[in-house]
Amino acid sequence: MNMVEKILAKAANKKQVAPGDVIVANVDLMVMHDLSSNLVMKVIETEMENASIQDPSRIAFVFDHNFSPASQLAAETLAAVRKFAARHGIRHVFDGGTGSVHHCIIESGLWAPGNVIIGCDSHTPIYGALGVFATGVGNNSMAALGFAHSQAWFRVPETMQVVFHGETGPGVGPRDVAQHMVSRIGEDGAVYRAVEYAGPYMEALSIEDRLLFPLMSIDIGAKCGFINPDDKTAAFARSFSPGRAFDLPRNDPGTKYTEVLEIDVSLLEPQIACPPTVGNVKPVGEIARVPVNVAEIGGSTGGRLCDLRQIAAVFRNRQVHPGVRLQIVPASRGIYRAALAEGLIETLFAAGANIFPPSAGSNQAFNMGALAQDEVMISNQARNFPGRNGHPKARHYLGSALTVAASALHGRITDPRTLS
Amino acid sequence: MIFEGTCWKFGHNIPTDLITPTNVTLRGIDEMARHVLETANPDFPKNVRPGDILVAGRNFGCSSGRAIAAKALKATGISAIVAELFSRTFYRNGHEIGLPLLEVAGVHDLVETGDRVRVDIVGGAIENLTSGKSLRGAPPSEFLLEMVQAGGLIPLLKTGSRFFQGNP
Prior knowledge:
The complex is a heterodimer. By secondary structure, chain A is an alpha/beta fold. Chain A has 2 domains: 3-244 and 254-262, Aconitase, domain 3, CATH 3.30.499.10; 271-418, Aconitase, domain 3. Chain A is built from 14 helices and 18 strands. Chain A has helices at residues 3-11, 34-47, 72-88, 101-108, 139-149, 174-185, 200-204, 207-210, 212-215, 231-240, 305-314, 333-341, 344-350, 401-410, and strands at 22-26, 29-33, 59-62, 92-94, 116-119, 133-136, 151-155, 159-165, 194-198, 224-226, 259-264, 271-273, 281-283, 294-297, 325-328, 354-355, 376-379, 395-398. In chain A, strands 4-3-2-5-6 form a 5-stranded parallel beta sheet, with helices on both faces. In chain A, α2 (34-47) crosses α5, α11 (305-314) packs across α13 and α11 packs parallel to α14 (401-410). The N and C termini of chain A lie far apart (49 Å). Chain B is α/β, with parallel strands linked by helices. Chain B has a single domain (2-140), classed as Aconitase, domain 4. Chain B is built from 7 helices and 7 strands. Chain B has helices at 16-19, 29-35, 43-47, 67-75, 88-96, 142-150, 153-159; strands spanning 2-9, 53-56, 80-83, 101-103, 116-120, 125-128, 134-136. In chain B, strands 4-3-2-1-5-6-7 form a 7-stranded mixed beta sheet, covered by helices on one side. The longest helix of chain B has 9 residues, at 67-75. The radius of gyration of chain B is 15 Å and the shape is globular. Chains A and B meet through β1, α2, α3, α5 and β7 of A and α4, α5 and α7 of B.
């Protein structure tokens, strides 16, 4: 069995599982942001006669989209979820300003390798970088099996492997590699599958950078993504979840795949996901010079400490282009504190950037980031679908933190390799 | 599960952002249904009738896994959705709320909006009654058929399923 099959077999109290099996597995952690916690609450209250919750300690809510409600409706929604949590003994409620949902959870130490984690958020597969089986489920799944029984049903997925070789050139990084992979596989190229990310390039990455690949598994349609855990995974788990015992489930020798894709990263240029979809990826040279109104570092794929370090390095003793609003959104309070201690926030503030609280940032434009017709944003957020950030005819481009920085400096989409 | 109705056709990679736009996601399902897919086709929420059948291309319901996208479509009264391929989250959500779904390769070219179509979920087939052409696809698995026939996951948990036996 591979890592995913081993975790699922153990969680379902079975010796063996195989692709295609339908199983019911015990779940270690259920993760929701403010939008989905509200929807699951409504299922419990309206479709399940206020059923009781089997183990509230396995549930966590993170208020990351409405981090400071901008409307009475949003305020009342959050207030209702807080009351629901209190009534049911759900203590892990991370209120507005704590961070982007999954980064907040990683920092919280509520997880360990070998866990099954479900979330009502399609980016839940992020924990696959940590030796965890993690996937998104719907509100009814979360309420009826998750909240009521601490369980979930799964069809055991087939697994494909993506093997990365080589080293990226200057100005090119893991975000470019991940976006290139999405364009190679296609937005529906891995639907229902588990995707294993492997090879010397992947092994050499930090955990912070590895997170991008399982996270972006949804952009190729996958059920989950994973990287076989190693010493780095164990050290990362011990640093955030020091009290939790765990083992590192790894593939058995001779693991079989439905498909193996080899990617050489050494000749890649910086990659930009262009509207209207995350799979519409082009080398930066093809769209350089598009004027930019808003630039943002933030969201589940942005706002990491490494992103803040990269953009701060670009803006040391430089100013944001006068036509650009640069928005900085740390992904968690721990990252914010580290960025303060390193002087990154001061550098970015002096350059003219606006600093926002740890949150989902402009994702879905609840508290920030709505665009007018024909406005252009470039960010290292996760999604660029029309209508997600204001007017359907606004355009949202996605790239690495370095590409966002170079574009904010010059007021137009810019190849970061031109930075001196 | 055989349905006959008027077809509404949509394209490839329709994200949940277009099905239930962000600005209605905090509102009730009826309000969402009044705006469902309006950016992709403003006529759809205004003129869709109970029993109509939605046909789409590849990767229908990608992007956010919001189950309200499937719920808002079900609230319009459509009887089924046929797509070349559904996103995994939409496929799961649809069955869990009792909305019949069928995957048929090539279906995007089989129909146009306004055609009369006949869909057999268990048999995995769709027929365009206007053109007389038909295609076969992949019916849902036995477990998902059981779930959708029960009306969704919550009713299925009440009646029970052999798939839940022997599990923890």
